[in-house]
């Protein structure tokens, strides 16, 4: 818990080109290093900007890995890349949609996000990059002819209980509700 006598951080808001905004709003997030709540920094951007930022961050991760300079943040950086790309595609950015793995029967971005959310909620031992790997691997199997059994086998192997595996599988195959 934060110390109530700590001074409250000053509000910050910067509006960048094309309406992008970086701001603090008084909300907090959990610091992964300390487990304590810390002030959150919010970044609001267009879907196209999110797609571009995803590629920039992905390129940085690849270059940093070549030079062995990437530290423990790799897991969170890769998860951020995936989330930015998926959110840009889910909101209809044409370039991000082309980048997203898809096939005639491949689960959509929305279905993958739903499956990752199930894993996040029910399997705390699985980190963000592992969630992405699991969901994308299962989705690839589902895009193959007769791949349903292999996708289900993968999920049963990685989930701590069959119910969770079934929920993830259902998230990948059920059509999401249309937005109102």
Extended strand count: 5
- Tell me the radius of gyration: 19 Å
The main pleated sheet reads as: 3 strands, antiparallel
Helices and strands: which structural class? mainly alpha
What share of the residues lie within helices?
Answer: 40-55%
Could you state the order of secondary-structure elements as H and E?
Answer: EEEEEHHHHHHH
Strand content: 5-15%
Count of individual domains:
3
**Can you tell me the residue ranges where pLDDT is under 50 for at least 5 consecutive residues?**
none
Average pLDDT rating: 83
Span between N and C termini?
A: 38 Å
Spatial order of strands in the largest sheet: 1-2-5
Tell me the number of helical segments per DSSP (H or I, 4 or more residues long). Answer: 7
Principal-axis shape equals: globular
Walk me through the topology.
Blueprint: E1 13-15, E2 21-23, E3 28-30, E4 37-39, E5 42-44, H1 47-66, H2 74-90, H3 94-99, H4 109-122, H5 128-142, H6 148-158, H7 162-173
Antiparallel strand pairs: 1-2, 2-5, 3-4
């Amino acid at each position: 818990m934060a110390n109530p006598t700590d001074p409250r951080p000053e509000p910050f808001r910067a509006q960048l080109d094309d309406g992008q905004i970086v701001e603090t709003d008084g909300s907090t997030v959990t610091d992964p290093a300390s487990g304590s709540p810390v002030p959150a920094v919010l970044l609001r951007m267009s879907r196209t900007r999110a797609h571009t930022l995803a590629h920039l961050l992905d390129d940085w991760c690849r270059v940093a890995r070549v030079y062995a300079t990437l530290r423990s943040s790799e897991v969170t950086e890769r998860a951020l890349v995936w989330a930015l790309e998926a959110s840009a595609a889910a909101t209809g950015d044409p370039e991000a949609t082309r980048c997203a793995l898809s096939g005639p029967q491949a689960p959509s971005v929305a279905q993958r996000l739903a499956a990752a959310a199930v894993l996040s909620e029910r399997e705390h031992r699985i980190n963000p990059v592992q969630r992405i790997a699991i969901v994308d691997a299962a989705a690839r199997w589902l895009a193959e002819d007769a791949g349903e059994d292999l996708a289900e086998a993968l999920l049963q192997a990685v989930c701590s209980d069959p119910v969770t595996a079934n929920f993830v599988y259902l998230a990948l195959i059920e059509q999401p509700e249309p937005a109102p």
